[in-house]
Design a protein that fits this description.
With 213 residues, the protein is mostly helical. It has ten helices and no strands. The two termini are 18 Å apart.
Length: 213
């Protein structure tokens, strides 16, 4: 009986020492954010067609996470971030990546919540067709303003009327969708993820080491 008890104590002691060793071997810090930001900047420079404020797609972001993993930081919320970036086949991407759409996009990119409003319009019945035709107009940008000038219709006014003949209401039209549209939006999401990971790592390292009985 005493022999079994001694053996059990030895096993527990070995396991405890092993756990402490594993904890000591874990990374104690993430790569500096300056390195992360530099890698992101370099990545997007490879897409020479992109300018500041241009809309981005999942195809332009996907491989970047592999590059970030090579630095020693695996982005835990990668899938969530990816879902917030529009796929290349999204209606709004199809419109804004056309020659006329790209010109229009760069005229309105600085407008607050412009991509949020455009995406909501693109999801309405006939919305994608409306935007496809609109971006061909030389003065298309003035119709996309958050508040148009008196006498100038906005995008909702161009949508087909509802059954009662009234201007259609677009739900949450003036609110953010929480999607990621631009490189700047992506940078903000990555920064939040990085500092959340840093806080989590520090909390884990603050746990008292296991001691043998």
């Amino acid at each position: 009986m005493l022999r079994r008890w001694a053996i059990w104590l030895c096993v527990v002691g070995v396991l405890a020492i092993g756990l402490r060793s594993l904890k000591a071997e874990d990374p104690v810090e993430l790569p500096p954010f300056t390195r992360i930001q530099g890698l992101i900047d370099q990545h997007f420079r490879e897409y020479s067609q992109l300018r500041a404020g241009d809309i981005i797609t999942q195809n332009e972001v996907r491989f970047l996470f592999t590059k970030l993993s090579a630095t020693g930081w695996v982005v835990e919320d990668r899938d969530e971030i990816m879902k917030r970036v529009l796929p290349s086949g999204a209606p709004l991407i199809r419109v804004l990546r056309s020659p006329h759409g790209t010109k229009f996009m760069r005229q309105v990119a600085s407008d607050q919540l412009i991509y949020d409003r455009l995406e909501r319009i693109s999801q309405e019945p006939s919305g994608q067709r409306l935007l496809t035709d609109l971006v061909k107009l030389p003065d298309a940008a003035r119709y996309a303003k958050r508040k148009t000038q008196p006498g100038v219709p906005d995008l909702i006014d161009f949508l087909p009327k509802d059954r009662s003949g009234k201007t259609r209401r677009v739900k949450d039209y003036d609110k953010a969708t929480e999607n990621i549209y631009t490189i700047n939006d992506f940078n903000k999401a990555i920064r939040r993820s990085y500092y959340a990971a840093t806080a989590k790592l520090r909390a884990a390292l603050a746990i008292e080491p296991i001691t043998s009985p």
